[in-house]
Automatic annotation (TrEMBL):
Organism, scientific name: Arthrobacter halodurans
Protein name: Exonuclease domain-containing protein
Domain of life of the source: Bacteria
Gene3D superfamilies hit by this protein: BRCT domain, Ribonuclease H-like superfamily/Ribonuclease H
Keywords assigned: Exonuclease, Hydrolase, Nuclease
Lineage of the organism: Bacteria, Bacillati, Actinomycetota, Actinomycetes, Micrococcales
One Pfam entry name: RNase_T
InterPro entries: BRCT_dom_sf, Ribonucl_H, RNaseH-like_sf, RNaseH_sf
Domain Exonuclease: 4-170
Keyword Cell division: no
MF terms (GO), sorted A to Z: exonuclease activity
Length: 334
């Protein structure tokens, strides 16, 4: 059996993907975890402020990494650990985006990586109300004890990938992907001077505009739905939102129209109300996936759960998960 890969998880200091402050890695050989590694790091210079929202999520502060090496110093160790493995991550577009953007702003080269996303694969393997990492980890028999500790998240992701392979009787990662009809992702090599990713271009534009993005009270009190833009037909089909039908409820850190625009940019269709076409509901107002167990739901979320009870396949996403998926700079103070 050659069910081999490396699972990774990054934590970031702020809303820019390149602001890596922690990484966990879990190496799998023959369907078993054989080695793990983790590092704290300072994000690349100029992108190393710690947003209170991120600190609240993972508990890592600027003081905690003050004596740690920067991303550029840690990356050779990351690259050596991964080697030529396929990278597996939960929302892999984000984690591979962290590597790309951090390399770009650090002006460093990096190799190409093949990758697989356990968000996408878990949708083909489990029937869950939410495909956030804690829900899927529990379904896979590898429950998380300390979510957002990078090495624990990487270990959970590895366990999920192992369980998905078991469910489908896969002997290799490529065989699993082929059997499920899922196309693997490919993050191309980067060298300074290559075109920048959109995340990095947006972050540089934001910095050059000399300041924080203001809040928008006109939509914070009563979100306006706006228009539903056409999905981008040229978006990466391996993105976890590609081909999804997304509806929003509650206040996010961005306006409803901006949320719809970002969803459409990665290939999702959007709508203003829940129907049987809906495949994902994004819930704002600080909602987290664990609130599904506690009952803190909007009327749209309750409607989704009723539809699920009648056989519909709709997942519920917290705003943090959505913003991580679509990228971009978060408005300050929201």
């Amino acid at each position: 059996m050659s069910y081999d890969f490396t699972a990774i998880d990054f934590e970031t200091a702020n809303g820019f993907r390149g602001s890596a402050c922690s990484i966990g890695l879990s190496r799998v050989r023959g369907g078993l975890i054989v080695e793990e590694a983790s590092w704290l790091m300072r994000p690349p210079a100029g992108y190393d402020h710690f947003d209170p929202r991120n600190v609240q999520i993972h508990g890592i502060t600027a003081d905690r990494v003050a004596d740690a090496p920067r991303f550029g110093e840690v990356f050779p160790r990351i690259a050596d650990f991964v080697g030529r493995d396929t990278i597996v991550a939960h929302n892999a577009a984000f984690d591979l985006g962290v590597i790309r953007s951090a390399l770009e702003v650090s002006e460093l080269s990096g190799p190409a990586y093949d990758y697989a996303c356990t968000v996408i694969l878990s949708r083909r393997s489990y029937q869950l109300a939410s495909y956030s990492l804690p829900f899927v980890a529990e379904a896979a028999g590898v429950p998380l004890r300390n979510h957002h500790d990078a090495v624990e998240d990487a270990r959970a992701c590895a366990g999920i990938m192992i369980d998905i392979g078991r469910i489908h009787g896969a002997a290799t990662v490529d065989g699993l992907m082929d059997g499920l009809g899922v196309r693997g992702g490919r993050a191309e090599a980067y060298a300074p001077g290559d075109p920048l990713s959109k995340a990095t271009s947006d972050a540089r534009n934001w910095r050059s505009s000399a300041g924080e993005v203001p809040r928008q009270p006109d939509w914070a009190v009563w979100p306006q739905e706006g228009v539903d833009p056409a999905p981008n037909p040229d978006a990466d089909s391996t993105h976890p939102l590609f081909g999804q039908n997304v509806v929003f409820t509650g206040n996010l850190g961005i306006s409803r129209q901006e949320a719809k625009n970002r969803a459409a940019a990665v290939g999702a269709a959007t709508a203003s109300r829940v129907t049987r076409k809906t495949s994902a509901l994004v819930v704002g107002d600080g909602f987290t996936a664990s609130d599904l167990r506690g009952g803190r739901l909007t009327s749209k979320a309750k409607h989704v759960l009723r539809l699920r009870d009648n056989g519909a396949s709709i997942e519920v996403l917290a705003e943090g998960e959505f913003l991580q998926m679509v990228g971009g700079i978060w408005p300050a103070g929201s």
